Amino acid sequence: MIRKAYANWMYRWETALTTRDENRIVRPLEWGFDWLGDYIDRRNLRSRIFGPSEQAPTDDRIANQAMLKLGDDIIQNGKTFFGYRVPTDFRLEERHPQLFPTNVRPETLQKDAALRERAESGKLPKAKFLRFTSPVRTIHPENDQVNARWYPAPPQKMEDARRTGKPKQAIIVMPQWNADAFSHNALCALFNRFGISALRLSKPYHDIRRPAELERSDYAVSANIGRTISACRQAVADIRCCLDWLESQGYEQFGVLGTSLGSCYAFIASAHDARLRVNAFNHASMNFGDVVWTGQSTRHIRQALEPVMTQQDLADLWRCISPVSYLHSFAHPEELRAEGQAEAVRKKVLVIHAKYDLTFREEFSLQVVENFRRVGLDFVSKVLPCGHYTTGETPYKFIDGWWLGSFVYSAFKEIGGTRHTFHEQAGSPQLVAD
User: Fold this and answer.
1) C or N: which end of the chain has fewer Cβ atoms within 10 Å?
2) Residue 158's domain is classified under what CATH number?
3) pLDDT tens, 311-363?
4) Which phi and psi (to 5°) does residue 197 adopt?
């Protein structure tokens, strides 16, 4: 009885949080082959997927079949699709942090205005951001300038590590879909206390990368099938480019932490890059399309797609950006080593899901756990007694932050051979849900 009452209360709370933003837009279905045109031409696929005319079809049924063929080719040639050229314009930029909110609630706008006022009055310290041009280009120049707030470990921590022979360690942090620019910053500061540097990476179409016509980061996930695939491709390449910059700064061991949409990007990046040894997935699913079709926060996308397709159709179309398609590569990094990548060792993995999640439904998160067990991954599974959005509320944000922080600390400690205990340095970071 108590358990049922708690579940009902949690579902009501979760629903209230997922429906408070009124600026979600129902955009029309678009197949978006033009967003993948460079890959189509590089692989000489036009006649194979489009037929003799070599032109993208406009008929929905034919376009669906063409996109499925393209998706199959992407999965079979993931190393090419998610491959990239290392940027040559890495640079550190100093500026005042900005919020870049994705909702128009009064309290958010007030917070944004307060930050701007502090910056103008000189009361807000500047921060450092890694900037470079993404190797995956789009029609939006601002989106193609990658942005990652840089949290280097304190000099004393770095010096202590040098004296003890500890490798220089760093983690890339990718928050959730529609995260503002302050989300997950507290986690990065926590990792610094452990001597771990952090890059808080802005996903494609997020915060400073968001095109001016958008209030929300709609272009990252939308009813444009090809653009959504392209956004994932760009995110994966951006993560790997961050690793290249970190290596150029002398870092030797790396991890990645992704929340929600960020967990999908993080997983696929790790599946294609043996350097990512520490992996924390905060709200995860095996299939991209299942989450979009069934999630409360993506109802507006389903509304656009439902007249022409089913849940299974969408799952098949976005299988090429779904973790399930790259599970073998993730579980067997030694194959990447054989191809000349950095030394591959067994990955350390954390996966967290929420019992009452209405965005990443629990059944899909349990599929992650089942698949991880099936392929023999070394992983830890944790279950939050809340939902997706309520993860960002008290007290659940502290539980989530503790699990993420303690895992990252312990995993890096294990691969780096440090002797400290987490309890000596742990803090209580705050997370902000989508």
Assistant:
1) N
2) 3.40.50.1820
3) 999 999 999 999 999 999 999 987 766 666 655 578 999 999 999 999 999 99
4) -75, 160
Tokens representing 271 are 């599946």
* Order of strands across the sheet that contains 127-133: 91-95, 127-133, 145-151, 197-201, 169-174, 253-259, 276-282, 348-354, 379-384
Amino acid at 106: P
Q: What is the DSSP string of 117-186?
A: HHHHTT-S--EEEEEEE-SS--S-TTTTEEEEEEEPPPHHHHHHHHHHTPPPEEEEEE--TT--TTTTHH
Q: How many CB atoms lie within 10 A of CB 185?
A: 21
Of the CA atoms within 13 Å of residue 389, those in its CB half-sphere come to 19
Tokens at residue 159, please?
A: 């010096």
Pairing verdict, β 197-201 and 169-174: parallel
How many domains does one find in the chain? Answer: 1
Q: Is residue 160 part of a domain?
A: yes
Structural domain of residue 296, as residue ranges?
Answer: 2-30+77-418
55 in a structural domain? no
What type of residue is 119? A
- The amino acid sitting at 426 is A
Phi first, then psi, for residue 137 (nearest 5°) are: -100, 150
pTM (predicted TM-score) = 0.94
For 112, counting Cβ atoms within 10 Å of its Cβ (0-12 exposed, 13-18 middle, 19+ buried), the class is middle
Q: Which two tokens stand for residue 398?
A: 């502290």
Residues 6+ apart with CB under 8 A from 7: 356
Residue 386's region, left for phi above 0, alpha for psi from -120 to 50, else beta, is beta
Tell me: cis bond preceding 395? Omega within 30 of 0 counts: yes
pLDDT digits (tens, 9 = 90+) for 422-432: 333 333 333 33
Domain assignment of residue 433, yes or no:
no
| 150 alpha-carbon distance from chain centroid | 17
Report helix, strand or coil for 29.
coil
